[in-house]
Amino acid sequence: MRKWVLSGILASEETYLGHLEALLLPMKPLRAAATTSQPVLSLQQIETIFFKVPELHEIHKDFYDGLLPRVQQWSHHQRVGDLFQKLDLKVRGNKECKDQNAKNSLEGVQHDLLKHTPSCHPDYPLLQDALRISQNFLSSINEEITPRRQSMTVKKGENRQLVKDCFMVELVECARKLRHVFLFSDLLLCAKLKKQTGGKGQQYDCKWYIPLADVTFQSIDESESSPVPQIPEEEVEALKIKISQTKNDIQREKRACKGGKALERLKKKLCEQESLLLLMSPCMAFRVNNRNGKGYTFLISSDYEREEWREIIREHQKKCFKSFSLTSVELQMLTNSCVKLQTVHTIPLTINKEDDEPPGLYGFLNVIVHSASGLKQSLNLYCTLEVDSFGYFVNKAKTRVYRDTTEPNWNEEFEIELEGSQTLRLLCYSKSMLCRDDGENTDKMVAKGQIQLDPQTLQGKDWQRTVITMNGIEVKLSMKFTSREFSLKRMPSRKQSGVFGVKIGVVTKREHSKVPLIVRQCVEEIERRGMEEVGIYRVSGVATDIQTLKAAFDANNKDVSVIMSEMDVNAIAGTLKLYFRELPEPLFTDELYPNFTGGIALSDSVAKESCMLNLLLSLPEPNLLTFLFLLDHLKRVAENEMSNKMSFHNLATVFGPTLLRPSEKDSKIPANPAQPLSMCDSWSLEVMSQVQVLLYFLQLETIPTPDSKRQSILFSTEV
């Protein structure tokens, strides 16, 4: 059947090529005539009549010449999907060739061919991809032919343009509500999406609106008087675990080809869980007031969105000089028009994504922030880096402040962990001399920008250079990505010298110590001057500083204390994390790892405590004493949570995978790379289990360990 379909395609292509060749024949003399003193046709007329004919002929001739020998030498295992991929990509590359009949025909034959290709055939995924490319291209052509409505007419013949719309979380009497916010050229409208009943189409209910001329923003001092109620991080993390488990269940149903009601129930469950996470996650306030002083509060995840909204509202306020009121009829008409005007049609949930959309990157992204140019005045400038995770953005790194310059030259490298990330954001701030008691940032944002993390571009081993342009300022970056399956491998110990990558028992025996010197010295330096550092252990240190410290410890440099005293405290925190990450065996050991993850899943609290404590005391003595030393330190860090923003949960998120992640042979991650989404969700489940183990020990008030062991760790002076 496949050969019959392909034979039909060949016949169709042969006819199409004949038509194109017939059109090509008169082109040469017509072009020549067009250059004489008395043209038959103008060059513009020729270009219109024979638009892109040579290019189309070349594309389809290449396709025909490739397909013909494969059909002539036919076998059941013959592959042709790659030819359709190339054809679709070439046609897409010539988007101005709007021969839509040919493109619709191409999509139709691809449907027929896919229908008669077994799912186990090597051609099946290639044909699926080719069909996706073709469908996406046709959709974009249709959008150009029938463009989306962008404005509505108001009285006096003026147009009210839609500038921006998106889903946001509004805080209403301490309750979080999902809203669709529409910014028009003259007003801000907050609407609620009504539930669809009785076959009715999408409808909105207006909650409030403010003319742009009346919009004001709350200052920092005003914002302090109404703090945002926070959702406990443990609840957010527990919801993430449920989401990953549900995604795994959906993938299992799909692989079993069961489908039906069970799959639909799981999808509905995932939708409910992700909707709840969307409400719970954001915690940064964006407040707007109307002319009477009434305030409305949205919750967002990043300063980036807050500044973006402020900028675009202020820009359009320049053209709005008068306040106004809408009648109930006008307001109803405006609200009804939102259905046709909207640009964001679905709530931003992964359940709403297409199956072939990439799940994001999992692993480590190394970023070098080189320099900035285009500043109009000297500033004390620094940059922060954010990436998205589970639909909201998290601050991951911060450069040092480059003082009093128009051309800062940082050249600082950071290693950022990615969890399904698709976007990297860069925010530039001018350092303020003001300091708030609650640790909130008072520095002025100078510029912001973002880039998409393209897996195809980043999959190579080489550094990728890029420039982010924002508000006339250019920041140069280099990036390199390492996928999680490679970045998190624990390497077997191949050396006896140094401390990194060497078994912890070997190091303590050589040093005649209970706890490795590197752990003690890093902890002491952090407790000396880093306990109030915002994001300590979460914010990445400069990679070059970390490597310098690593080399100093490996070489047993006697000046390592002096070197540390001159370094940023985040680099010291990064060195400590790197030491535990590079251990050839995790601190909790490969042997006991499955027992720890099993024990944390117990529902009976008494049984769980007995199991977890017995497992902990089963660790080898160097591992146990080092963990207790680190645990006491992390608890002291959490005591300063008001200043450093590092709760037990934040610390467990940072250190859990570092201390527990097993060697590759003990990992639960499936080895089959053909299921990337399932693999990513398995990663998430395993990482979350590791976080829960460490969080459990952090939350225990006391750990009843043998007195001799705890005394030896707390009061030992051995080096």
Automatic annotation (TrEMBL):
- List GO terms (cellular component aspect): axon; dendritic spine; membrane
Q: Where in the cell is it found?
A: Cell projection, Axon; Cell projection, Dendritic spine
Q: Check the record and name the InterPro entries matching this protein.
A: Abr/Bcr, C2_dom, C2_domain_sf, DBL_dom_sf, DH_dom, PH-like_dom_sf, PH_domain, Rho_GTPase_activation_prot
Q: Which domain of life is it from?
A: Eukaryota
Recorded hits in Pfam families, A to Z, give:
C2, PH_19, RhoGAP, RhoGEF
What are the UniProt keywords, alphabetically?
Cell projection, GTPase activation, Guanine-nucleotide releasing factor, Synapse
Q: Where is the C2 domain?
A: 345-468
Record-level Gene Ontology MF annotations: GTPase activator activity; guanyl-nucleotide exchange factor activity
The UniProt record lists the keyword Phosphoprotein: no
- One biological process term in Gene Ontology: signal transduction
Cite the Rho-GAP domain residue spans from the record: 502-696
Q: What sequence ranges are listed for the domain DH?
A: 1-86
Would the keyword Transport be found if you checked this record's keyword annotation?
Answer: no
Which residue numbers delimit the PH domain?
A: 161-318
State the SMART domains in the record: C2, PH, RhoGAP, RhoGEF
**Protein name, as recorded:** Breakpoint cluster region protein
- Species source reads Denticeps clupeoides
